[in-house]
Amino acid sequence: MVESKQQWKAWLYLSPAIVLLLIFTVWPIINTVRMAFLNGYSGLAAVGGESFSFGIDNFKKVIEYKRFITCLKNTCVLCFVTVPLSTILALLVSVALNSIKPFQKVLQTIFFLPYVTNSIAIGMVFAAMFNIVGSAFGTPNQIIVTAGIVNNVIEFFGGTAVNWINSGSTHLANMTVMIIYIVWNALPFKILILLGGMQSINKQYYDAARVDGSTRRRIFARITVPLLSPMIAYVVITGFIGGFKEYTSIVGIFGADMGPAGAKGSMNTMVGFIYDALSSNSQGRASAAALILFGIILIATLINLWVSKKRVHY
Amino acid sequence: MADRVLMKEKNMEDVTAKSRVGVVVVKILTYVFLIIMAVIVLFPFYWMINSSLKTLEEYRWSVPSFWPQTVMFKNYLEAFTTASLGRLFVNTMIVGVVSTILSLIITVLSAFAFARLEFKGKNILFAGLLATMMIPGELFTITNYGTVTTFGWINTYTVLIVPFLVSVFYIYLLRQNFLQIPNELYLAAKVDGTSDLKYLWTVMIPLSLPTLISITILKMMGAWNSYIWPRLVANDEAHRLITNGLRNAFTATTGDVNYPVQMAAVALVSFPLFLVYIFLRKYIMKGVSRSGIKG
């Protein structure tokens, strides 16, 4: 009696979630696969009554597209540079934080602060810091008004100012700015997880090591890292997943043009490519690109899991 | 305890004068490293506030000043009107509050069904829900854009609220929390003739309040920071959200831009987040450390 009453009650409570999930999650999964395999599918043309043949043209078109290669390259560079860099930095900061007593809480609060910011808004601050304020900058009769605070610091230490993000800047300079911003943005989450992990390591391991007279470096390599490896694996995996979906931080610095003035789209990413295809009503191409992105994320995650299975110490 | 003290004393004896100096040096280096990192982390915020208070003329000085000579609070007023931040604040609050409330109701009911009720296919359904978390959101957006267009929802509040009401992750989080509450309490309440909803309201919700607060904060921050979807589906004056509005009002990022006003606008958008962080830090960190997702 109670059992059968629970049956319909459960479905009643679940109904709002299930209805919404069917419309906005389950149907999109099916539909994305469908659109991706209909040659040249376009939502606009479909409404007009056009029919599309089944095939893999969308995937071929996406891969042949030069813009797509640029996006893929940018995404991979950002991913493979920022994830290791931010993980190592976060590990160093966490170890340092874990080894001190006074000011630990204050510093911890400061290090988490970038997480609760708006990545578009703070991207604009980074743009201001790297910008060269000048009239007609990038032309022969340019007038530099202010070199920007980052360049001021470089000049203070005896270097020469770099054109970071203005018109005519190099791809390398653009990438450097993006990497700095993304690492700055990625640190807080990683520090939070790694420090939390370190604080839950049983103190007795360290006491035992100290009695044995182990050196600091040995303790770090033989105790901290192995016992922390599940957390390290976690931040690396989530870092890669997030890294392959990089988009808004670039909009923050370069604006919706996804590149410095005169080089529109040169900093575009996979997600940016999907939205470009969507806004030009090429849903077939957008779907194919989204499935490729999903495939890349899946493979990267599986590789990470496979590596961590061998290395992670549970 | 006594053992540990003894161990410490033994250690102290072992430590020679030389390595004691080493310990101090390491301590100092640790603090120096942490302080340098903290300065790097804080610098953009300082620079934002510093720039936002300068006159445009002072901002253009070839050697920048580290504190404004004439403090220009007027920039904030100008930023507020240029970006029509008032309208954007109101829009974002409407979307944030309504979607948080509805989302909490849906999450609580679903988590309750998964944690307390027995029904056919429960485990398969739950596993299926968790599997959808692996798929990148962009994959859904393509179809959802078409769906909301068909529904005629473009440029409405509905389109900003409804598609994101269900979060599988929050259901999962709350279900775990509900499972920790002993089932005997539920059965006792049933014997007393208490209805499910009353039991939820008087026992389960108070007991899982910290999780619900974390969800609320993350959901509100999500509305505040969302950019891609709002730009796609509600890019008109009446419904534009704050992040999109900020980016729209100041399209130029490089060159000779009126940076003080732009930075004032950025600061105005950032301050509410700082306030939330200062007062509700504990809940944010707890929610984030379990999810790893922004918003």
Please render the helix and strand layout as text.
The complex is a heterodimer of chains A (314) and B (295).
Chain A: H1 2-36, H2 43-47, H3 57-64, H4 66-98, H5 104-112, H6 119-130, E1 133-135, E2 143-146, H7 149-156, H8 171-199, H9 203-211, H10 216-244, H11 248-254, H12 270-279, H13 283-311
Antiparallel strand pairs in A: 1-2
Chain B: H1 2-14, H2 17-52, H3 56-59, H4 74-82, H5 85-116, H6 122-132, H7 137-150, H8 158-161, H9 168-179, H10 183-191, H11 196-207, H12 209-225, H13 228-233, H14 242-249, H15 259-291
**How many strands of chain B?**
0
Largest sheet of chain A: 2 strands, antiparallel
Q: H/E element string of chain A?
A: HHHHHHEEHHHHHHH
Greatest interface and its participating residue counts? A-B, 107 and 99 residues
Radius of gyration of chain B: 26 Å
Mean pLDDT of chain B: 86
The CATH homology group name of the domain at 65-131 and 166-311 in chain A: MetI-like
Given the structure, what is the number of helices of chain A?
A: 13
Structural class of chain B: mainly alpha
Give me the CATH architecture of the domain at 65-131 and 166-311 in chain A, please: Orthogonal Bundle
Description:
The complex is a heterodimer of chains A (about 325) and B (about 300). The longest helix of chain A has about 35 residues, at about 1-35. Chain A has helices at about 1-35, 45, 55-65, 65-100, 105-110, 120-130, 150-155, 170-200, 205-210, 215-245, 250-255, 270-280, 285-310; strands at about 135, 145. Chain A has about 325 residues and is mainly alpha-helical. Chain A has 13 helices and two strands, in the order ααααααββααααααα. Chain A has a domain at about 65-130 and about 165-310: Orthogonal Bundle (MetI-like fold), CATH 1.10.3720.10. Chain B has about 300 residues and is mainly alpha-helical. Chain B folds into two domains: about 1-50; about 75-290, MetI-like (MetI-like fold, Orthogonal Bundle), CATH 1.10.3720.10. In chain B, α2 (about 15-50) crosses α15 (about 260-290), α5 (about 85-115) crosses α9 and α12 (about 210-225) packs antiparallel against α15 (about 260-290). The model of chain B has no long low-confidence stretch (mean pLDDT about 85). Chain B is globular, with a radius of gyration of 26 Å. Chain B has helices at about 1-15, 15-50, 55-60, 75-80, 85-115, 120-130, 135-150, 160, 170-180, 185-190, 195-205, 210-225, 230-235, 240-250, 260-290. Chain B has 15 helices and no strands. The interface between A and B is large, with 107 and 99 residues.
